[in-house]
């Protein structure tokens, strides 16, 4: 039974090359092992990087992705590879943050999803980007994302 569930995965347990771009990255999914039970899944990527599309300079963010699964979970190795595919990808903070959320929604069909993109300052201004698909389902514990706003040294 377990082999059948995971037989379609192409990255987990395999040597996998880094995708050349977010568009080339494959996000894989697995069946939700607790369908009908409302619960939250959280992924934290404190060292997310992308490139400024105008200057080519690196941008850094702390991403927090929360979702209440629908029929599927995102397979974590594929998510890691997808997120690291942004390292050589030029896009504004807003496009990265919202684009990641929309891609996950398309691939795994969650009941609810939110993402917090806590971007470190470049040019003296931090930019935080937040997106969610709607109201959170009732009866699910959804903790604060726990990332302090940027305060610099003061």
Give a structural overview.
The chain has three helices and six strands; from the N terminus they run H-E-E-E-E-H-H-E-E. Helices cover 19% and strands 27% of the residues. The protein is an alpha+beta fold. It has a domain at 31-132: GTP Cyclohydrolase I, domain 2. Strand 5 (112-119) and strand 6 form a beta hairpin. Strands 2-3-5-6 form a four-stranded antiparallel sheet, covered by helices on one side. The mean pLDDT is 91.
Quick synopsis:
The protein is of the alpha+beta class and 154 residues long.
List the helices and strands and how they pair.
Layout: H1 2-6, E1 29-31, E2 41-51, E3 58-68, E4 72-74, H2 76-84, H3 93-108, E5 112-119, E6 128-132
Antiparallel strand pairs: 1-4, 2-3, 3-5, 5-6
Shape: globular
Q: How large is the share of residues in beta strands?
A: 25-35%
Give the helices and strands as they follow along the chain: HEEEEHHEE
Which CATH class of the domain at 31-132 applies here? Alpha Beta
Largest sheet: 4 strands, antiparallel
The stretches of 5 or more residues where confidence is low (pLDDT under 50) are none
**Total count of strands:** 6
Q: How many helices in DSSP terms?
A: 3
* Name given to the CATH homologous superfamily of the domain at 31-132: GTP cyclohydrolase I, C-terminal domain/NADPH-dependent 7-cyano-7-deazaguanine reductase, N-terminal domain
Helix content range of the residues, please? 10-25%
Stated plainly, the CATH topology of the domain at 31-132 is called GTP Cyclohydrolase I, domain 2
Structural class: alpha+beta
Radius of gyration: 16 Å
Identify the strand order in the major beta sheet.
2-3-5-6
Instruction: Report the span from N to C terminus.
Output: 56 Å
What is the CATH architecture term of the domain at 31-132? 2-Layer Sandwich
Mean pLDDT over the full residue set: 91
Keywords: Cytoplasm, NADP, Oxidoreductase, Queuosine biosynthesis
Active site: 52 (thioimide intermediate), 59 (proton donor)
GO biological process, one term: tRNA queuosine(34) biosynthetic process
GO molecular function: preQ1 synthase activity
């Amino acid at each position: 039974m377990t082999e059948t569930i995971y037989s379609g995965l192409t990255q987990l347990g395999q040597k996998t090359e880094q995708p050349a771009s977010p568009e080339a990255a494959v996000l894989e999914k697995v069946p939700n092992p607790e369908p009908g039970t409302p619960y939250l899944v959280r992924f934290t990527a404190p060292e997310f990087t992308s490139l400024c599309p105008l200057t080519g300079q690196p941008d850094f963010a702390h991403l927090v992705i929360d979702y209440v699964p629908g029929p599927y979970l995102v397979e974590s190795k594929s998510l890691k590879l997808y997120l690291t595919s942004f390292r050589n990808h030029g896009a504004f903070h807003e496009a990265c943050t919202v684009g990641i959320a929309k891609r996950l929604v398309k691939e795994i069909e969650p009941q609810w999803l939110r993402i917090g993109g806590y971007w470190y300052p470049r040019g003296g201004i931090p930019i935080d980007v937040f997106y969610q698909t709607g109201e959170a389902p009732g009866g699910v514990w959804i903790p604060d994302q726990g990332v302090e706003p940027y305060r610099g040294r003061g």
